[in-house]
Amino acid sequence: MGYFLRVGKYVKQIAPHGHPIAVHNGPRQPPFAERFRYAPGVIDMIMFQTWGTRGKDDAWLAAGIEDEISASMKGWNGSFVLTEYGYERNPELELRVPIHEHLDPEHTRRGAWRGAFSAAGIIHGWENTWGPWWIPEKDQEGIKYLLILRKFFTEIVKFHRFRPVTGIIDKPERYGHGEKPLGMASIDEDVFLIYSPIGKSFTVRIPKPESYKSFWFNPRTGEIGEAVGVLSQGSIRFDTADGEDWVLIMKKPKAASVTI
Q1: Looking at the domain 160-251, which fold is it?
Q2: How many CB atoms within 10 Å of residue 223?
């Protein structure tokens, strides 16, 4: 970290254009706010890398990305981007890096949504354009999911108006690793977003849930449909249509942060 700070100070002294200084993370702990506390304002952005699960049986879930971001960015007031959470495997190419083997389009999609629900911009990697390969004219399967995510956060909801929230999912302890739904709220809390990484019922606890109208957004197709929940005292339960991942949108009638 001392090297980063020395170089950052030097660049800011000699660079004429005031460009922001970014660093790739290296070790994810201790938190960046702690590491950079003695030189505030030198580092402007963290280009953060964490992979999530990537084994044969769990790579599809991309579990843990949001937890790593939360822990590493604790107290950090600068910008950060999830710059690399994997390199989607192209089985037509020779396997040069074993840790890429199980990084499929499911990992691409769920990892992107986990990052976005951590308030991070997303940059993904592709085997087609990694290292010894250079096939930029051929998109890999997972790119379609990133285009759907981009549409959601630019055309349906206003990404810059949302922040991650915790404590709105009832009984979070009942979920396995990487299964717990993630939440975001608009600045004035007239819209709540819930990302469920796997198809499973979940209960949302927010004030007056009956005052919100709800919709399902399909992160695999981009389709939107009405969502009907079961109200209880101060909560509302939803059941997903299948075992895949889903996004729930809960909005008040005049919410400005969503275009539905």
Answers
A1: Immunoglobulin-like (2.60.40)
A2: 10
> Is 252 in contact with 191 (CB distance < 8 Å)?
yes
Q: Which letter does DSSP use for residue 73 in this model?
A: T
Whole-number Cα distances in Å, 58 to 103, 115, 129: 10, 17, 24
Three-state SS string over 182-218 comes to EEEEECCCCEEEEEECCCCCEEECCCCHHHCEEEEEC
Residues of the chain with pLDDT under 50: none
- Say how far apart CA 55 and CA 103 lie, in whole Å: 8
Please state the separation of Cα 66 from the chain's center in Å: 7
- Other CB atoms within 10 A of residue 130 CB: 16
CB of 148 closer than 8 Å to CB of 220: yes
Spatial contact of 242 and 196, defined as CB atoms under 8 Å apart: no
Mind listing the pLDDT tens digit for each residue in 33-80?
Answer: 888 887 777 888 899 999 999 999 999 999 999 999 999 999 998 899
Q: Which residue has the tokens 């004219």?
A: 137
What number of residues does the chain have?
A: 260
Domain ranges of the chain: 2-156, 160-251
Residue 222 CB partners (closer than 8 Å, separation 6+): 148, 151, 152
